[in-house]
Design a protein that fits this description.
The complex is a heterodimer of chains A (110) and B (114). Chain A has 110 residues and is an all-beta fold. Chain A is built from no helices and eleven strands. Chain A is globular and about 35 Å long. Chain B has 114 residues and is mainly β. Chain B has a single domain, classed as Immunoglobulin-like. Helix content of chain B is 0%, strand content 54%. Chain B contains no helices and eleven strands. Chain B has strands at residues 4-7, 10-14, 19-25, 33-38, 45-50, 56-59, 62-67, 72-77, 86-93, 102-104, 108-113. Chain B is globular, with a radius of gyration of 14 Å. The N and C termini of chain B lie far apart (40 Å). Classes of the chains: A mainly beta (110), B mainly beta (114). At the A-B interface, β4, β5, β9 and β10 of A face β5 and β10 of B.
């Protein structure tokens, strides 16, 4: 049984560009959340999707947006990239319980 | 009120020793407290979790102690092994609200010496 799958694993973008990260949740999970983890820090909640709707959002600007598809997979989009957006982006899925995290996408903005 | 404070920042333990990591929270609405283990280049993996209606939970070598009145909880790793060397995060969430937003601590980097 596959866990949470994220793609790509690594990505280098230039400041000002846009990026899309993808996530396939663990089988049977219907809720997907995205977290940003800066180097040496704990994950910070970006937002959560359930039934294709954004259910809750953390303290991130509108440059961060997302989407959930009918098969529960999800995308995270970041526009107008800043150097400070460089981080590990984690997708986590759940079905009314503890999260299962993916291995993340390492985004580097240069 | 949304913060979870974790200590120590780093910890070095001899093989076979006990590793203890502490967390404190402010928001009494939190009702689910998991601990995650993260290896370099990997996502966090759930180790053990507790709800505030119990004071202790044990799974193998890992034990969570929970003090509701002090708003503190801790992870004890018994018989620590070099393979336990990783970063550990505590977290808290308010699952009764129907959402699963986690507030994470800042992490503890554990090194177990062989």
């Amino acid at each position: 049984d596959a866990g949470v799958t994220q793609s790509p694993t690594h990505l280098i973008k230039t400041r000002g560009q846009q990026v899309t990260l993808r996530c396939s949740p663990k089988s049977g999970h219907d809720t997907v959340s995205w977290y940003q983890q800066a180097l040496g820090q704990g994950p910070q909640f970006i937002f959560q999707y359930y039934e294709e709707e954004e259910r809750q959002r953390g303290n991130f600007p509108d440059r961060f947006s997302g989407h959930q598809f009918p098969n529960y997979s999800s995308e995270l989009n970041v526009n107008a990239l800043l150097l400070g957006d460089s981080a590990l982006y984690l997708c986590a899925s759940t079905l009314r319980g503890g999260y299962t995290f993916g291995s993340g996408t390492r985004l580097t903005v240069v | 009120q949304q913060q979870v404070k974790q200590s120590p920042q780093s910890l070095i333990v001899q093989k076979g020793g006990i590793s203890i990591i502490n967390c404190a929270y402010e928001n009494t609405a939190f009702d689910y407290f998991p601990w995650y283990q993260q290896f370099p280049g990997k996502g966090p993996a759930l180790l053990i979790a507790i709800r505030p209606d119990v004071s202790e939970k044990k799974e193998g070598r890992f034990t969570i102690s929970f003090n509701k009145s002090a708003k503190q909880f801790s992870l004890h790793i018994m018989d620590s092994q070099p393979g336990d060397s990783a970063t550990y995060f505590c977290a808290a969430s308010r699952q009764a609200s129907g959402t699963y937003k986690y507030i994470f601590g800042t992490g503890t980097r554990l090194k177990v010496l062989a």
